[in-house]
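Box S2. Input/output pair 1.
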Amino acid sequence: MLLIREKIASVKMVSQHLFNPTALQAGVPFHMIRDFYNYLYERMQPGDAVLAILSNDLFSTLQYADPITMRALPRITTFIYMNFPATSWGSKETTLAWLNNEEAKDGIE
């Protein structure tokens, strides 16, 4: 049983290392990458700014985002559009459904 857990942890670590350079190259601020990764692959609740961005909630994004995030918003939204399944972002309802695992993963394991 322990061997299976170690393999799962290893796969997650490799996935995260592959995700990080893609996100960094796209211009996603380093301090946000873990939230995006955990949201997409682990379906974990992200911080307020990331959730607002994923929900297309401009006013909340302006409220919660720091200056680095604000400058990177065009690159962040392009990264999401190009790399996230359409069922994982776009509205509050969509993001809640994704977090509650109500939508198919669309190949994301």
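Box S3. Input/output pair 2.
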Amino acid sequence: MSPKSAARSPNGSRTYRPKGNPKTTNQSGEVASISSMHAEVVHLATVESLTEEIRGLVYERQTLRAVGAGAEQLERNRIDLVQRQQDLVGALIRRYLPADLDAA
């Protein structure tokens, strides 16, 4: 494996993660200094917080239906609900997948 690994951040920029050798290069091939490198911190929602968000979205959907909301509002709620459910699946996998299987 190379002394550095590169990954794309959500905004499409390249993020370097040095492994062992602190000298990494930027996209121009120049040696990047510590001050020019940045770390991206990702805050992952917990199973519990996602469950609460889903509960709120379900309540919102029931309310929207009860007051006769339009299709656009219901669709927006449905998309939010599906996204939170997918996030919950990921959180549950991170929580319960054995570490040795995750590395494979």
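Caption for Box S3: The chain is about 50% helix and 15% strand. Confidence is low (pLDDT under 50) at residues 1-11, 13-22.
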